[in-house]
């Protein structure tokens, strides 16, 4: 059994796609008052509008069966859908289960509302591991063919799917098979460089910020592709484990490397500071005398600084302020009025 999961924000569009040309047969309508898919779409859209924070309340799950197994009945599909929804925490949420018969293999779709009756959205993290774990339990219970997945291990073998991806990403450059074989079969870094150069490719190390370093392959036309995208066995960590320390080119900035390698500047010592390295083996009494001398000099400097700061306002410290301040005669009011 294989699962595919998608998320969106329009229930009407999804249900129109699942029921167009009368290709879909509704198997179950969970926690819905409506009896038709279009009415259910409007009902689910209104229920999802209660949550302000959830921007993608639509969860679309597609479950496919192995063609070599016995075709499941409608009751089996309902039970499998209920187990998948329970694994995702959507057992009490609105959902439609629709069966399709337009392919050679049996499969059904689930249109679920992540927003529950309390107005809170179910967290959608780890959706694939939860779904694949539920499918592995169904396969083991009903004796179906176990399909290894990338996220949940098989209950019988305990292994996950490994190797290159089967689906090609149209936005990602592809590398020839000879380059992939060179990455997987190289015995040394020199041999890897020679084999890649023979095909017009080269490998470099890249590192962005604090992220771990990675290996990048550069093609003859300038295309760049991560080594781990070609095959999971060709990541930089696995190449290092197999070939030892790498000899690939690094794209680190040499200027930043020189800047970070500089030693910090030493601070200038004050004039009266004691060199304790020289005084380490000296007499303790002499050390105390030196400290007292520096303390006395510092106190004299502080007293002089305070004296200069206080002179404009009240004269020198210790002097008689009345004697230093000239007396000022007070004029009588009659003198100002001319009397």
TrEMBL record:
<dbReference type="InterPro" id="IPR054462">
    <property type="entry name" value="TraI_M"/>
</dbReference>
<feature type="domain" description="MobA/VirD2-like nuclease">
    <location>
        <begin position="17"/>
        <end position="144"/>
    </location>
</feature>
<dbReference type="Pfam" id="PF03432">
    <property type="entry name" value="Relaxase"/>
</dbReference>
<feature type="domain" description="TraI-like middle">
    <location>
        <begin position="178"/>
        <end position="245"/>
    </location>
</feature>
<dbReference type="InterPro" id="IPR005094">
    <property type="entry name" value="Endonuclease_MobA/VirD2"/>
</dbReference>
<feature type="region of interest" description="Disordered">
    <location>
        <begin position="142"/>
        <end position="177"/>
    </location>
</feature>
<dbReference type="Pfam" id="PF22863">
    <property type="entry name" value="TraI_middle"/>
</dbReference>
<feature type="compositionally biased region" description="Basic residues">
    <location>
        <begin position="327"/>
        <end position="339"/>
    </location>
</feature>
<protein>
    <submittedName>
        <fullName>Relaxase/mobilization nuclease domain-containing protein</fullName>
    </submittedName>
</protein>
<feature type="region of interest" description="Disordered">
    <location>
        <begin position="310"/>
        <end position="339"/>
    </location>
</feature>
